[in-house]
Amino acid sequence: MKHGKGYQKVAEIYAPCKGETIEEVVKAVKQGSTARETKFDETVEVAARLNVDPRQSDQMVRGTVVLPHGTGKKVRVVVVGKGEKLKEAEASGADTVGSEDVIEKIKGGWLDFDAMVATPDMMGEVGKLGKLLGPRGLMPNPKSGTVTFDVTKAVRDLKAGKIEFRVDKGGNVHAPVGKASFEDGMLSENIRTFLAELVRLRPASAKGGYIKSLTVSTTMGPGIKLDVPAVTAALKG
Questions:
Q1: Long-range contact list for 202-209, CB < 8 A, 24+ apart?
Q2: Would you give the distance in Å from CA 109 to the centre of its chain?
Q3: How far apart are CA 189 and CA 158, in angstroms?
């Protein structure tokens, strides 16, 4: 596959980077984004290839983490609940709150939100939206903290930069960790926070090396590899 001049220019910037530290990679990624003169603020993403078999239930890697500096994206949160919980949701900054009215609105095709929080007593009705919300990754889930009576914490975490990640069928995990416009230290800390949680979630049944590869990239740019042994050792230190 032949790449354009912009892509090749970034690849040349990446070439000297050995990927031994997160800071080194972040600096190269930001230089690459600037060199291409992208007309929008690119998202920075970390991709990890894990040595697990997602077909085995005891090797499914799934989690959430609140990035210390957020993702750089304004998250629109809808809360489905009853009574006082709706007042709590409004006070905590939810963009849309409601009960059956919101559910009917979604059934009608409204999906103008990025995350949904639902109280447990509403899941009987919310569950009927599975075919609409599931494929879009919007279905509330107890494991991700979005099915809860503590709507205040759920909304604030989402607004603050809480991300959800899970391993796919190929053993890969992808996570947004900020924007190219972020300061170097902010991106580095976000990446470190995500990787620390990923390492913490290593299944007990996983054999051998857990992380096969780590790559950092921007929306339109090539990936740059992190030195897995060096980076994971630094996380433990």
A1: 202/61, 203/52, 203/58, 203/59, 203/60, 203/61, 204/58, 205/56, 205/58, 205/59, 206/50, 206/51, 206/52, 206/59, 207/51, 208/51, 209/51
A2: 25
A3: 18
Within 10 Å of residue 166's Cβ, how many Cβ atoms? 16
Task: Tell me how many degrees the CA angle 185-189-190 measures, rounded to the nearest 5.
Answer: 120
Q: Given this model, what pLDDT does residue 9 score?
A: 77
Q: Return the closest-CA partner of residue 73 out of 114, 109, 104, 102.
A: 114
Termini Cα distance of the chain: 40
Is 27 exposed, middle or buried, given 0-12, 13-18 or 19+ CB atoms closer than 10 A?
Answer: middle
Confidence band of 69 (pLDDT split at 50, 70, 90)? very high
Each residue's pLDDT tens digit, 129-154: 999 999 998 999 998 899 999 999 99
Listed residue (175, 79, 83, 168) closest to 118, CA to CA = 79
Average pLDDT over every residue of 26-45: 88
Mean pLDDT to the nearest integer, 29-53: 90
Alpha-carbon span 82 to 100, nearest angstrom: 9
pLDDT digits (tens, 9 = 90+) for 164-219: 899 999 999 999 999 999 999 999 999 999 999 999 999 998 888 999 999 999 98
Q: Are 163 and 135 in contact (CB under 8 A)?
A: no
CA atoms of 40 and 181, how far apart (whole Å): 10
